[in-house]
């Protein structure tokens, strides 16, 4: 903490002190912490996947995923989230060019895509419940709703967070702090897309196969 | 109306047990005493500004240690209650339900609310000083971690007087912990208390990894780090890899209980075995999480009091880091009897035996460090010496347990109880005590009384063997764990009585420690050198207690144990290494958000426990609001001017 | 992410990072689209069945994961020492252990 800013105040006299491994840079350090957080989130999802894989066959005589999954909606969700991962990357590109307006516009597009993903997912959940597959139906559905729902919860949190960052960008413009925040949220967003690829593959594709 | 209130209160509060009424009265009186003392001495502002909102790692560390010692007291009382109940056959001191609750809270508190915070306290007190940093990587997050731990621990302890304690064992195996068999709120207290403090542990793990990797002072290469720093790194690595699994496991159990899901139920396709599989994937690494830093402490202590470099630095680093990864490949040895087949059992038996190797390596490193050293035996070193035989025996019985076929005999017997207490008391508790005694003068500026400390050490050490050696034999004689009473005809009477006496000896040892602390505060001799033990690492190069910015100028390190080498150079007539010019120091500002946010978590947790959504939802909204408030705050730091640094250093007797 | 740790100092002075071109994002996006389409075609048209299909499905997922790591998250551009890469690999080993270990242990404890 302190080091980084020492450097901000008196960079020339201090420059040589940083030849060793590890640069004491505040924003960079925060990025690293967030990366480690994402790894812990990976393990969180890993545990949920393990539970899903072990319990997915246990339908207790109730409906199975293969019977109820509506693949059209799931395919739409997949491509929407994939596109939003791309647009969040375009937002970072605009930021690197110093284009604040472009940055906010691409973030807004990402939020809209994310929101439509969530809308589709909620619709899917409601339909499933109507067709007799709720979280309390069987172990298989408990694991399904928890895994997919946790991902959805992550996306929803990301939406709120992204809107908060857009407001901050409006207030403060692009500086080292907002730059780090945009970097973090786009990293988070790519991560959620990666998790979804595995949800899509393991839960849906292998479920209907 | 009045009847409604009475009905509610009799459900809400725990009633009917004189012990608990006594505790109620004690709690209320203590609270009243604290509040009136703070008001009388007008200390509320001081408390808020200096402690509750602080982001200073040294103060957070002190708060961790105080909380951990309080929890040690409570967990210890639980232990003595159990030992009292078992002292004589067919005693009716505790009824079986009460006994169940007590062994559950004893286990949870000792591991999660005593060992973990004591460990985090030592990280906070020592790591930044040892690597020449001015704070941790994320001071705000550090404060949040503490308050989450604290609120989680308070929520868990609240179950004692409100709603009823959990009573399904420290890992709450289903199906017993499911709604069908534990309909009370105790189990939900367990889930939320651990869950909230678990989030804090995870964040501390991230915080210290980044601190160690990114904030070392110039010249301190990885292979020049002090051993406690290495052990912290390996422990934190294990934390970040293991704690998400705990979060998921407890969340699934809660979803089962709250939403009627079927993860671990007996019906609906649920599988209780999956819970046991998941929880031990966290649970086994967890014991390494708490013991690794103790290894680091012993390494520091043994080198300091042998006046020698640690023997086998590289092998020690390798041992620590390999344990932190290998600990993830042994979990099934906790449930050999579950029936997972011979292949599974054989695999996990072998991995368990393999992990004993790096542990054995370390024992030899410590012994060779002492060999031909200039030894002295103050209290930290005594705990170190007490640890070695204790841990060797504990480790050996662990290897016995790892033999899968033999485990079918040992499983869930007192043999197991004796084994894990031997590694957890002999390894973890002795280690953290050594650490507390060793770094106490750095933190508070005075040493603890040696004479009382020696009394405490011998009482603990003798008490330990008297308490737990008989339990190995009780286990072999067939006494199973979690047994609330036994008959005269079993032949377990004498050994149990001896064991109880040992337990009380340790209790008296704890009282000596409390006396020691109070006595030392009253008759303290200020340490003005900052280096009372003739230490080796950077934390001893600055005044005690450390100034708020730790290092006026960052030390430049060129060797392992750089402070020791510097002292040798000066003793041989060399000049002290030149210090760079003072510059204003950048510091983080205090923040009230961590404590408020954690309180909101507490409220949300309490709401979910009682299924009061009117309380849970505002709690969660409060959490979100705190996060946003923090995100929108760009005014988070300030500078300490050079003049103030000069004044502080001069006051500590340091020329700049 | 990674590269910030080493280039962050320049951030403070307002210069740009050297990573992430439009080209890399477009390549990543196109590859991801292709890798999502392959399993869809295979499963929905019943081209492959059984183990073969499972292998192709998981293979495309893992490939897409790598594509996103390289083209979207720029993991390759991290400066040394590559802590982020190390933590990632360690995390993946643990995830694999959790999933494979659970499947292995629980095969013998199946309930309906």
From TrEMBL, chain A:
Taxonomic path: Bacteria, Bacillati, Bacillota, Bacilli, Bacillales
Gene Ontology CC terms, in alphabetical order: plasma membrane
Single GO MF descriptor: cytochrome-c oxidase activity
Localization of this protein: Cell membrane
Subunit structure: Heterooctamer of two A chains, two B chains, two C chains and two D chains.
Chain segments carrying region Disordered: 1-21
Species the sequence originates in: Cohnella terricola
Domain of life of the organism encoding this protein: Bacteria
A matching Pfam family: COX3
Similarity annotation: Belongs to the cytochrome c oxidase subunit 3 family.
Keywords: Cell membrane, Electron transport, Membrane, Oxidoreductase, Transmembrane, Transmembrane helix, Transport
Heme-copper oxidase subunit III family profile domain sequence ranges: 32-208
Xref: InterPro entries: Cyt_c/ubiquinol_Oxase_su3, Cyt_c_oxidase-like_su3, Cyt_c_oxidase_su3-like_sf, Cyt_c_oxidase_su3_a-hlx, Cyt_c_ubiqinol_oxidase_su3, Ubiquinol_oxase_su3_dom
Record-annotated membrane-spanning stretches: 34-55, 75-96, 103-123, 143-167, 187-207
Role noted for this protein: Cytochrome bo(3) ubiquinol terminal oxidase is the component of the aerobic respiratory chain of E.coli that predominates when cells are grown at high aeration. Has proton pump activity across the membrane in addition to electron transfer, pumping 2 protons/electron.
Biological process according to GO: aerobic electron transport chain
Gene that this sequence comes from: cyoC
Membrane topology: Multi-pass membrane protein
This protein's name: Cytochrome bo(3) ubiquinol oxidase subunit 3
TrEMBL record, chain B:
UniProt cross-references to Gene3D superfamilies, sorted A to Z: Cytochrome c oxidase-like, subunit I domain
Catalytic activity line of the entry: 2 a quinol + O2 = 2 a quinone + 2 H2O
Cofactor(s) this protein requires: Cu cation; ferriheme a
Membrane spanning residue stretches: 20-41, 62-81, 101-127, 139-162, 189-213, 233-255, 275-298, 310-332, 344-368, 380-404, 416-440, 452-475, 495-518, 591-610, 616-634
Recorded metabolic or biological pathway in which this protein acts: Energy metabolism; oxidative phosphorylation
Domain called Cytochrome oxidase subunit I profile: residue spans: 40-558
Main location: membrane
Cross-referenced InterPro entries: Cyt_c_oxase-like_su1_dom, Cyt_c_oxase-like_su1_sf, Cyt_C_Oxase_1
Key words of the record: Cell membrane, Copper, Electron transport, Heme, Hydrogen ion transport, Ion transport, Iron, Membrane, Metal-binding, Respiratory chain, Transmembrane, Transmembrane helix, Transport
GO BP: any one term: aerobic respiration
Subcellular location(s) per record: Cell membrane
Annotated SUPFAM superfamilies: Cytochrome c oxidase subunit I-like
Topology versus the membrane: Multi-pass membrane protein
UniProt keyword Transmembrane helix present: yes
GO CC annotation: plasma membrane
A molecular function GO annotation: heme binding
Keyword Transmembrane helix: yes
Family: Belongs to the heme-copper respiratory oxidase family.
Name of the molecule in the record: Quinol oxidase polypeptide I
Species: Cohnella terricola
Taxon lineage: Bacteria, Bacillati, Bacillota, Bacilli, Bacillales
UniProtKB/TrEMBL annotation, chain C:
Source superkingdom: Bacteria
One Pfam family, short name: COX4_pro
Any single GO CC term annotated in Swiss-Prot or TrEMBL for this entry: cytochrome o ubiquinol oxidase complex
Keyword Cytoplasm included in the entry's annotation: no
Stored InterPro entries: Cyt_c_oxidase_su4_prok, Cyt_o_ubiqinol_oxidase_su4, Cytochrome_c_oxidase_bac_sub4
Keywords from the named record: Cell membrane, Electron transport, Membrane, Oxidoreductase, Transmembrane, Transmembrane helix, Transport
Keyword hit for Flavoprotein: no
Biological process according to GO: aerobic electron transport chain; electron transport coupled proton transport
Membrane spanning stretches: 25-44, 50-73, 85-106
First-listed, main subcellular location of the protein, grouped into a coarse class: membrane
Entry membrane topology: Multi-pass membrane protein
Subcellular location field: Cell membrane
GO-annotated molecular function: cytochrome bo3 ubiquinol oxidase activity; proton transmembrane transporter activity
Homology family: Belongs to the cytochrome c oxidase bacterial subunit 4 family.
NCBIfam families for the chain: CyoD
Protein name: Cytochrome o ubiquinol oxidase subunit IV
Origin species: Cohnella terricola
GN (gene name): cyoD
């Amino acid at each position: 903490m302190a080091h980084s800013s020492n450097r901000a105040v008196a960079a020339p006299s201090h420059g040589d002190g940083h030849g060793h491994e590890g640069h004491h840079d505040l924003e960079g350090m925060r990025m690293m912490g967030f990366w480690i957080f994402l790894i812990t989130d990976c393990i969180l999802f890993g545990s949920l996947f393990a539970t899903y894989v072990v319990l997915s066959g246990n339908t207790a005589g109730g409906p199975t995923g293969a019977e109820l999954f509506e693949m059209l909606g799931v395919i739409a969700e997949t491509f929407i989230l994939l596109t939003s991962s791309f647009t969040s990357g375009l937002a970072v590109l605009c930021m690197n060019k110093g284009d604040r307006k472009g940055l906010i516009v691409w973030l807004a597009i990402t939020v809209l895509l994310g929101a439509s993903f969530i809308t589709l997912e909620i619709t899917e959940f409601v339909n499933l419940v109507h067709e007799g597959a709720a979280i309390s139906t069987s172990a298989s559905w408990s694991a399904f709703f928890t895994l997919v729902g946790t991902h959805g919860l992550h996306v929803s949190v990301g939406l709120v967070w992204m809107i908060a960052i857009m407001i901050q960008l409006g207030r403060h413009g692009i500086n080292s702090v907002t730059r780090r925040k945009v970097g973090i949220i786009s990293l988070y967003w790519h991560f959620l897309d990666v998790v979804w690829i595995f949800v899509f593959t393991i839960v849906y594709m292998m479920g209907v196969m | 109306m009045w009847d409604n209130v009475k009905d509610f209160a009799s459900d809400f509060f725990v009633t009917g047990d004189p012990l608990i009424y006594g505790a109620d009265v004690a709690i209320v009186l203590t609270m009243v005493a604290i509040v009136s003392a703070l008001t009388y001495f007008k200390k509320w502002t001081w408390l808020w500004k200096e402690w509750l909102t602080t982001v200073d790692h040294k103060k957070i560390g002190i708060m961790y240690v105080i909380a951990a010692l309080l929890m040690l007291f409570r967990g210890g009382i639980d232990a003595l209650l159990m030992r009292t109940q078992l002292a004589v056959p067919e005693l009716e001191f505790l009824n079986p339900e009460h006994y169940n609750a007590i062994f559950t809270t004893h286990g949870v508190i000792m591991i999660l609310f005593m060992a973990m915070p004591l460990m985090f306290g030592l990280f906070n007190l020592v790591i930044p000083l040892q690597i020449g940093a001015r704070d941790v990587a994320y001071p705000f997050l550090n404060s949040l971690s503490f308050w989450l731990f604290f609120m989680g621990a308070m929520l868990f302890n609240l179950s004692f007087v409100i709603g009823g304690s959990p009573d399904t064992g420290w890992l709450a195996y289903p199906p017993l912990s499911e709604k069908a068999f534990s309909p009370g709120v105790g189990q939900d207290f367990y889930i939320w208390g651990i869950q909230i403090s678990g989030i804090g542990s995870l964040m501390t793990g991230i915080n210290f990894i980044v601190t160690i990797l990114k904030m070392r002072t110039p010249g301190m290469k990885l292979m020049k780090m002090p051993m406690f720093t290495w052990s912290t790194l390996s422990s934190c690595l294990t934390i970040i890899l293991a704690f998400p699994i705990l979060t998921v496991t407890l969340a699934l159990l809660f979803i089962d209980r709250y939403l009627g899901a079927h993860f671990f139920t007996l019906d609906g396709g649920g599988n209780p075995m999956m819970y046991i599989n998941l929880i031990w994937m966290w649970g086994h690494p967890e014991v390494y999480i708490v013991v690794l830093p103790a290894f680091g402490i012993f390494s520091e202590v043994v080198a300091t009091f042998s006046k020698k470099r640690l023997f086998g630095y590289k092998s020690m680093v390798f041992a620590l880091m390999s344990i932190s990864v290998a600990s993830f490949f042994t979990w099934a040895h906790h449930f050999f009897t579950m029936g997972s087949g011979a292949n599974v059992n054989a695999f996990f038996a072998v991995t368990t035996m393999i992990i004993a190797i790096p542990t054995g390596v370390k024992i030899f490193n410590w012994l060779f460090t002492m060999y031909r050293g200039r030894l002295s035996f103050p209290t930290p070193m005594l705990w170190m010496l007490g640890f070695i035989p204790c841990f060797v025996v504990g480790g050996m019985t662990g290897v016995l347990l790892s033999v899968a076929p033999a485990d079918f005999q040992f499983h869930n017997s007192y043999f197991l109880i004796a084994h894990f207490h031997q590694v957890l008391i002999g390894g973890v508790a002795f280690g953290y005590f050594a650490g507390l005694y060793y770094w106490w003068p750095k933190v508070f500026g005075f040493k603890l009384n040696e004479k009382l400390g020696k009394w405490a050490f011998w009482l603990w050490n003798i008490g330990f063997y008297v308490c737990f050696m008989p339990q190995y034999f009780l286990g072999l004689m067939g006494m199973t764990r979690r047994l609330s009473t036994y008959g005269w005809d079993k032949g377990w009477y004498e050994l149990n009585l001896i064991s109880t006496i040992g337990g009380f000896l340790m209790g008296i040892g704890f009282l000596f420690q409390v006396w020691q602390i109070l006595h030392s505060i009253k008759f303290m001799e200020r340490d003005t050198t900052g280096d009372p033990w003739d230490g080796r690492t950077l934390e001893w190069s600055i005044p005690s207690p450390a100034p708020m910015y730790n290092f006026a100028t960052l030390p430049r390190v060129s060797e392992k144990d750089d402070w020791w080498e510097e002292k040798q150079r000066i003793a041989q007539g060399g000049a002290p290494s030149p210090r760079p010019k003072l510059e204003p120091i950048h510091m983080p500002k205090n923040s009230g958000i961590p404590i408020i946010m954690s309180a909101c978590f507490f409220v949300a947790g309490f709401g979910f426990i009682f299924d009061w959504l009117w309380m849970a939802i505002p709690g969660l909204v409060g959490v979100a609001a705190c996060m946003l408030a923090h995100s929108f705050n760009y005014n988070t730091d300030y500078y300490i001017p050079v003049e103030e640094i000069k004044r502080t250093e001069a006051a500590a007797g340091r020329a700049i | 992410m990674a590269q910030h740790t080493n280039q962050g100092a320049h951030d403070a002075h307002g210069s740009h990072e050297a990573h992430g071109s439009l080209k890399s994002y477009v390549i990543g996006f196109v590859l991801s689209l292709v890798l999502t389409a392959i399993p869809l075609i295979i499963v929905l048209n019943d081209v492959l069945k059984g183990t073969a299909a499972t292998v192709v499905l998981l293979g495309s997922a893992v490939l897409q994961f790598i594509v996103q790591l390289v083209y979207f998250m720029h993991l390759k551009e991290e400066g040394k020492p590559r802590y982020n890469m190390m933590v990632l690999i360690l995390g993946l080993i643990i995830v694999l252990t959790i999933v494979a270990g659970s499947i292995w242990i629980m095969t013998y404890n199946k309930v309906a």
